[in-house]
Every structure is written in C-alpha cells, then in structure tokens.
Amino acid sequence: MSFAIELVISFFLIVGGIFVLVGSIGLLRLKDLYVRLHAPTKATTLGLGGVLIGSMFYMHYAQGYITINELLITLFLVITAPVTAHILAKVALHHRVKMMQRTRNPHHVETARMQQAPQVLEDKSKDKDSNTIK
Amino acid sequence: MLDITVIIVSGMLCVALILNLWRLIIGPHVVDRILALDTMYINSIALILLYGIYNRTPLYFEAALLIAMLGFVSSVAFGKYLLRGDIIE
C-alpha cells in the first residue's frame, strides 16, 4: 500500500474523528434540548460517514475486495438519524421541555401538541367527538 | 502511518464518548439522556470500525451493522414509550 493511499485514508479518518468530536462537544455545550438535537444528528452522522469512507478505501486497497457492509451502514444511518431526531423532538414537545428565552414563536408548541395521530376508520363509535377522517 | 492515525482517531472518539457520558449523567430531562445514549451508539460504531482497520480484518462490519440497527430500534422504542405510553399499540 503506497504512501498516497495511506494519506487519503488518514485524511478521511481524521476528518471523521474531528466531526464526531465536534458533535459531542455540541451535545455537551449547547444551551437547550431543541438546539442540542442538532449536534449529534448532523455532525456525528457526517463524521461516521467520513470514517466509513476511510474504511472502505482501506478494505479496497489493502485487502483487495469491496465489502457492501459499509454502504449498508451509511445508508441505514442516513435514513435513521433524522427519524430518531424527529421522534425525540416530538417527545420534547409533548413533555413541555423548557426552551431558551429567545426562542421565536413559542405559541406554535401548543399547535404542535394538539395534532392527533390518524385514527382508524372502523372505531367511529368509540370517539365521536374527536376529529376523525370521515 | 495508518496505525498512528487509527490510534489518534480512537483517542478523539474516546474523548467524544466521555463527553456523551457526561451529558448522560447530568442530563436535565430524560430526552437528553436518550439523545446521549443514541450518540454513544453511533460513536461505538465508529470505534468498532477503527478496531477492524487496526486488526486488518473485515469481520467487525457485521457487529457495526447490528449495533446500528439495535441503537435505532432502542431509541425509537424509548421515544414511543415516552410519547404514547406504550411501545406497540
């Protein structure tokens, strides 16, 4: 394995490590839960993508074959990280977690809390007064 | 050179894991703790991949994939339990 390929792999690994570290520092240092959701969702996922790209280069050039597992891990994380962040933001709205003083439009929290899950059409007899889809 | 890089990046990831553990301990609300646990899952995936590079074997990718899937499922289960009071309705 030549020096240039090792340099490329090291670059991707170090960039990935720096992004993961920045995500964790943001998780520790930011003020608010809603602000704190940004750091692990974006920076840590991007850092893990860097580590996975470095690993893929290494497995291709040192072992001589391409494994599809890195692509699967990348695809899975890119799909699932926004889903987790969305569910955690909904939980935080539901439990009325305190937000910062200068949060804009805080009255929209009540609007978001009022939204119901879509009801099943058959059990209209149970909840007549809720806003079911007729 | 690659071995030194892997050791340096592993040190960065260990510092990141310690910061996540600090947030997991001091978290003011339970959502903070779930978020810190999810971030610790992702960091341990990266640490396992680096261990695979260090040992020059592709064996650990399966473990990383398993940890990714279990981390997502556990975070969603915690969120559903806190949101609806039940996991599977």
Count the DSSP helices of chain A.
5
Task: Give the % helix of chain A.
Answer: 55-70%
Number of helices of chain B: 3
Radius of gyration of chain A: 22 Å
Percentage of β-strand residues of chain B? under 5%
Spans of chain A with pLDDT under 50 lasting ≥5 residues? none
N to C succession of SSEs of chain B:
HHH
Oligomer state of the chains in this structure: heterodimer
Count of structural domains of chain A: 1
- Assign an overall shape of chain B: flat
Largest sheet of chain A: none
Protein described:
The complex is a heterodimer of chains A (134) and B (89). With 134 residues, chain A is mainly α. Chain A has one domain. In chain A, 67% of the residues lie in helices and 0% in strands. Chain A is built from five helices and no strands. In chain A, α1 packs antiparallel against α3. The radius of gyration of chain A is 22 Å and the shape is elongated. The model of chain A has no long low-confidence stretch (mean pLDDT 84). Chain B is mainly α. Chain B has one domain: Helix Hairpins (Orthogonal Bundle), CATH 1.10.287. Chain B has three helices and no strands.
Spell out the key features of this protein.
heterodimer, A: 134 residues, mainly alpha, B: 89 residues, Helix Hairpins, 3 helices, 0% strand
Q: How would you summarize this macromolecular structure in one to three sentences?
A:
The complex is a heterodimer of chains A (134) and B (89). With 134 residues, chain A is mostly helical.
Topology:
The complex is a heterodimer of chains A (134) and B (89).
Chain A (H helix, E strand, L loop, with lengths): L2 H27 L3 H4 L1 H26 L5 H26 L13 H7 L20
Chain B lengths: L1 H25 L3 H26 L4 H25 L5
